[in-house]
């Protein structure tokens, strides 16, 4: 939708610079550890490959990456028991949320998340996963001919794409993510990030500035929790409203 920003785009525009690097590296290390349970070779373990790519995009040192792989694959001395959990809920305005967590203590994490929801007018535990579907998401830097880039995206086998203003957001079938990425890079396009994400089937447009500000503050609080690795939302905010609360 032209002139609108969804939560994933808002995060990329506004949130990245606000996240402490140490906390980012800690979360990325957990992602790598869990992925490495199914094999320590990224070329044979696609999930690990994505986690390592994400870590490198965040400039995580190779030594940290290797240590996380070692822990997760069972070859490290200080292996940890980390569980993957997905929680659902609603924010104000009936905005659907799915929160992906990596934790060594589910009771602590649930208590923390419930408190965050309660303080921000949300409804923790409300079923919302049905509002999302899994897709490959590739973020491309913009530069050069927009028309040529769009043709390359179409020829890559992507299922859809959006022009977010500063980037292209390309969607693929989950199994086609690596293939599409490779074709885009071969076409000379610059890939900024690659991930498997939950994408909302329908978006919840919030056009009230005060309400949008409260929801964004809530989502940022969730993102900042040490155990939370991803927050997916149906939120969409008109750019004119977003500019009011910047």
List the helices and strands and how they pair.
Elements: E1 4-6, H1 7-15, H2 21-35, H3 46-57, H4 62-73, E2 83-91, E3 95-103, H5 106-119, E4 123-124, E5 132-141, H6 146-155, E6 160-163, E7 167-172, H7 177-186, E8 191-200, E9 204-205, H8 209-224, E10 228-233, E11 235-238, H9 239-244
Parallel strand pairs: 9-11
Antiparallel strand pairs: 1-11, 2-3, 2-4, 3-10, 5-7, 5-8, 6-7
Explained architecture:
With about 250 residues, the protein is α+β, with helices and mostly antiparallel strands. The protein is about 40% helix and about 25% strand. The longest helix is centred in the C-terminal third of the chain and has 16 residues, at about 210-225. The two termini are about 20 Å apart. Mean pLDDT is about 90; it is low at about 15-20.
Q: Helix and strand succession? A: EHHHHEEHEEHEEHEEHEEH
> What is the number of E strands?
11
Residue runs with pLDDT of under 50 for 5 or more positions: 15-20
Mean pLDDT: 88
Report on the biggest sheet: 4 strands, antiparallel
Report how far the terminal alpha carbons are from each other: 20 Å
What structural class do you assign from the helix and strand content?
alpha+beta
Radius of gyration: 18 Å
Shape: globular
The number of helices is 9
Considering DSSP H and I runs of 4 or more, what fraction of the residues is helical? 40-55%
Beta-strand content bin: 25-35%
